[in-house]
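Worked problem 6 (solution included).
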Amino acid sequence: MLRISARAVTLLPVAGFLLLASNAESQTLQKRPLGTPAPISAPEKSAVPPKLAVPVLAVGTTMQVEVTQHYPMKAGETIQAHLLHPIYAGGKLVVPQNTPVQGRVIALKPDEKARWHARVWGDFTPFHTAEIQFDELMLPSGPMSFTTKEMATGAPVLRLAAGPATKQSRISRAWTQAKARVHDQIAFFTAPGRGDRLKQMLYSQLPYHPERIPEHTAWSFELAQPLTLPVPPPDLAQQLDPPLSAPGKPEIWSVHALLMNGVSSATAKPGDPVRAVVVEPVYDKNKQLVVPEDSILVGKVTLAKAARSLDRNGKLRFTFQQIRFPAGMTTTTPNRAVEGNLAGATGASAQSLSLDAEGTISPRNQSSVLAPILLSMMAGRALDQDNMMLHTGVASNGFGFIGRFVGMASGNYNVAAGIGFYAAGVSVCQNFLHRGADVIFPKDTRVDIETAPLRAPVLKPEGQ
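Solution. The predicted structure is:
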């Protein structure tokens, strides 16, 4: 039997410890086999802003443009205009205001009303109305061609703004209107552009003069095909409407819309429906969407008086009581009650209209008492027998230069007085005896509606 000494037993743990240490060192110094390198973590990707949706203007989108200079009235003339109002798509501004638009004169239509009115005063110019075909939108990225449903016929642009809410008596209103007419007559000689106005007044005395498309003529037309626009810059696409109300005052929303049906004081009756489509989104003071574009304003005519004889003009008033939100908005009530009053309008009209604080539209009274009186006094100068050349020239005011030339060349006081009294009679008919003017708002007239905030949650498109 093997005997182990006590000293050997004591050295056994030390030997075991040295053996384990030797194995561990040998394993550490061994060369590792080549293997697949550990994957290197990819750098974190930088945040990429989401791509903006490509804006598309739908068929029927209305554009209103205006020229800022005079153009000759001839077919083929190139017309440079600019947008009167911005265009929105999907709640974003895609075409800013004053964007240039190009077109050309396609045809000239006879203007019978202007012709007959001019012939009464001895002007035989064959007046026309220019039909314009706009077909190019001048964007910063380049021109964009488009097609319209029909050619547009222009008229001087009309802008209405409600006056202060003050009550005036009939005498006070008449006095205010008289002062306004005097102010307009003074401005004819003092306002900028008086040289051009005097030249046109001289032209009106000629039997024939050149025609032109005057500055501030406006056209309204609709797209016949969808128009795909380039993606607008982020700073343009993120513009929001600023709040209308001043600090410390109740919040008021201004809704910009286009009339979907024409309204006229000659044919409308109280209670007739009026609808308008919202063309610009409305945001509250917190920059939250509250009225999206393509919403429908529903209202009715509250006052309609047709024009009558003896120069009594028509009157028109309409209000909106409901707003219908477009499909795709997260709201449980698609129809909301509102109280919207007309606060302004922009359209094409050859007459001057006024808008009071209650929203009543009526033509401005252009009648003048002084014109017939002055013409009658000047016609009576022919009865003086002392200076035939001077008095016949002063008296014969009808038919412009033709009437004056005939009155002076005839050497007959009766002929000169007859021409002068003819002019006085025409002035009396035009100022007092003819039928007054009606208020006519054609389709696509732009209106500004003021309304208080709706008692409804903020609107958001579905899926957001």
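Discussion: The chain has nine helices and 26 strands.
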